[in-house]
Structure formats: structure tokens, C-alpha cells
Specification:
Helix content is 12%, strand content 27%. By secondary structure, it is α/β, with parallel strands linked by helices. It has a domain of 138 residues: Hexapeptide repeat proteins (UDP N-Acetylglucosamine Acyltransferase, domain 1, 3 Solenoid). The termini are far apart.
């Protein structure tokens, strides 16, 4: 059974699933959908047109679905924020709805967003992604699956961060981050494969060796056609085939 604190303010048009808990002074606005087993803690605020998947945990002072921080945004536009399942939103996290009519800011499943991190309007965040404290990403940023972004890093609007990448903390990322790579340094560069992250994900043996060779070829500005196709290489090829709006950080 659901447990709703008597001081919580919940719209009559909000839809709450089974076994949902809502803490003291939480606010849930119109047309919000919260799936089964979610835990909405005290003093959190969920704006209209937010859809939460199953078993999400929303900590105090989290604000979901707020207006985009875009001076030209028309607040009468109908747009959405949608999350997958089993995400944790720690204290002070914010995520905004999209700027495009009927558009959606998307957050995947099994993500962890630490204190005071931020997802801007029209972003797409993949599964199993972690934002450390104070990470902030601009509008229309795309983040792949299994990405880790270090604390206090800021990512410019329209950038892409490829799957299985790890981004050093305290960076200003203004270009795309390649899949499977570690990004850091001053000036910012891709400096090697995210070896530990790849092994934790079971990408090893021949699949890992193909990525090592792919990195060697990319450093020489050569194509990848000579390599055996693996799921990871296919993902890398597809990612590289998309024209970048910001350019791609260099390799060392």
C-alpha cells in the first residue's frame, strides 16, 4: 500500500502507482505519473507532466520537470520529463522539461545523480549513468549508457558523451566525448580507454583488444574498416558517423 504524509500536496490529476511513498511537504503537480515502488522524500517538488518509472528514489529538495532555463521559452508549451526505473536523485538535483512542443527530456534506468547535479532541457541520458556532485549539463546534451561524469564538471549544450566514457571532474567540456574513453587534462584530451569501466561491464578479451586497436588507428587518423566487427566497434562506428555539432575533443 502507498504511504502519503498528510502534509504532502498532491494534485487530483496525478497518478500514483502501488507502494508509492510521499514524504512531508512534498509537492506533486498536475498530470504527473509515478510508477510503482517509488519513494518521494520530504520537501521534493515534481512539476506537471513528469513521468517517473518504477522504483525511483527522490531525495529532499529535488526538483523535477521545472521550466527550462531558456529566456525565449514559452511556458505555455506542453513538454515533458520522463525517467526510467531504479534511479536515485540525491539532494538538490534538478532536471527540466523540454523546450520543444511535445518534446521530452529523457533519463534512462539505473542512474545515480549525486547532490546538486543538473540535467537541462531536451537532454537524453542513457542507462547506468552516474553524475557526481555538482555536475551540470546544458540543453540538448546526449549522454550514452554507462557514463561516469566527475564532480563539478560542466558540459556545454549540444555536446555528446559516448557510452562507457569517463569524464574527469572539474572540467569545462565544450566538445564531444568519444565512447569508451577517459577524458581529462589541461588542455582536455582523450588520453586512453576507460579500461576499468570496460572490464566491469564485461568488455574484455577479443572485444577489448578490438577497441585497443581502434584507438591506435584513430590516433593515426586512419579508418576502422580493417577491424573485426564487435558490438562495441559497431557502436563506435555509428557514433563517429553522426555529424558533431560541437566537434570532438582530441586524442593523445
Amino acid at each position: 500500500m502507498s504511504s502519503i504524509h498528510p502534509t504532502a500536496c498532491i494534485s487530483s490529476s496525478a497518478i500514483l502507482g502501488k507502494n508509492v511513498t510521499v514524504g512531508a511537504f512534498a509537492v506533486i503537480e498536475d498530470k504527473v505519473e509515478i510508477a510503482d515502488d517509488c519513494h518521494i522524500m520530504a520537501h521534493s517538488f515534481i512539476h506537471s507532466d513528469v513521468k517517473l518509472g518504477k522504483a525511483n528514489v527522490v531525495h529532499p529538495q529535488v526538483v523535477l520537470g521545472g521550466l527550462p532555463q531558456d529566456l525565449g521559452f514559452d511556458a505555455s508549451i506542453v513538454s515533458y520529463l520522463q525517467t526510467g526505473e531504479n534511479c536515485v536523485f540525491r539532494e538538490g538535483f534538478t532536471a527540466h522539461r523540454a523546450t520543444i512542443e511535445n518534446g521530452t527530456t529523457l533519463i534512462g534506468s539505473n542512474c545515480y545523480f549525486m547532490n546538486n547535479s543538473h540535467v537541462a532541457h531536451d537532454c537524453v541520458i542513457g542507462d547506468e549513468t552516474i553524475f557526481a556532485n555538482n555536475v551540470a549539463i546544458g540543453g540538448f546534451v546526449e549522454v550514452g549508457n554507462n557514463v561516469f561524469v566527475g564532480g563539478a564538471t560542466v558540459i556545454h549544450q549540444f555536446c555528446r558523451v559516448g557510452a562507457f566514457a569517463m569524464v574527469q571532474g572539474a572540467l569545462g567540456v565544450n566538445m564531444d566525448v568519444m565512447p569508451f574513453m577517459l577524458l581529462g587534462g589541461q588542455p582536455i584530451r582523450h588520453y586512453r580507454l576507460n579500461t576499468l569501466g570496460l572490464k566491469r561491464a564485461g568488455i574484455k578479451g577479443e572485444r577489448y583488444k578490438v577497441l585497443v586497436e581502434a584507438l591506435r588507428l584513430l590516433r593515426k587518423k586512419q579508418g576502422l574498416d580493417t577491424l573485426s566487427t564487435t558490438p562495441e566497434l559497431a557502436l563506435l562506428r555509428d557514433w563517429l558517423a553522426v555529424k558533431s555539432k560541437r566537434g570532438v575533443h582530441g586524442l593523445i
